[in-house]
Amino acid sequence: MSQPKVDAYYQRETPFRAGLSVLRELALKTGLEETYKWNSPVYTLDGKNVFGINAFKTHFGIWFFNGCYLKDPKNVLENAQEGKTKAMRHWKFSSAEEIEAKSVLAYMIEAVDNQKEGKVWTPEPKKSTVIPGLLRKALKAEPALENAFTNMSAYKQREFCEYIDTAKQEETKLKRLEKIIPMIRAGVSMNDQYRKS
Q: What is the domain-level CATH number for residue 39?
């Protein structure tokens, strides 16, 4: 059963309307549930995202949420957001004529099969930050400093810890500690400091 938002998406005026319509026809052959998320049609299996169809200014295409597991015999898949996502892959088109229905449907069906088999990307849990001894000692000695450090994001905390940890000499570690204490008090991260200088 289609949703009004999905129907409206496919009926809107866009240079890629014909191509989007072809992709929708193919998507509906997979037996997935047609839903609407992030302002575009998404096709799901048991509530899990398998692929989405979307149009942009210069292209349209299919987003495979766990595309890293697709065999990609035609070598058409691109990493959707280089560096930001490990799993998502995108197949771009610039016209309806570029769509080889048989190949596209094969990719879609493989994505469905992968989902059924549990081939789903699970991000590695972030390692907890180990606070170097010198910094830990400084934080314990000054509750206000410890409070300021605790209120910082994990990313900022990790930056400070790595800054001290990467120093080889004890003397350098102490100099670095001296440098970051006022920054922690002010709630300023390492990168903020570099941007200002």
A: 3.90.1150.200
Per-residue pLDDT tens digits for 97-156:
999 999 999 999 999 999 999 888 876 666 677 889 999 999 999 999 999 998 888 888
Q: Tell if the pTM clears 0.70, that is, is over it.
A: no
Token readout for 6 is 């999905």
Measured distance CA(151)–CA(129) in Å, rounded:
14
Residues 6+ apart with CB under 8 A from 35: 3, 6, 41, 42, 43, 44
Give yes or no: residues 23 and 105 share one domain: yes
For 114, the token pair is 């992968």
Residue 145 and residue 96 share a domain:
no
Residue 176 backbone dihedrals phi, psi, to 5 degrees: -65, -40
Range of the domain at 155: 133-191
Note whether residue 175 is domain-resident: yes
**Domains in the chain, number:** 2
Give residues with Cβ within 8 angstroms of 78, minimum separation 6. 89, 90, 91, 92
CA distance 185 to 187: 6
Residue 88 · residue 67 · CB < 8 Å: yes
Collect contacts of 182-186 with beta carbons under 8 A, ≥24 apart: 184/145, 184/148, 184/149, 184/152, 184/160, 185/144, 185/145, 185/148
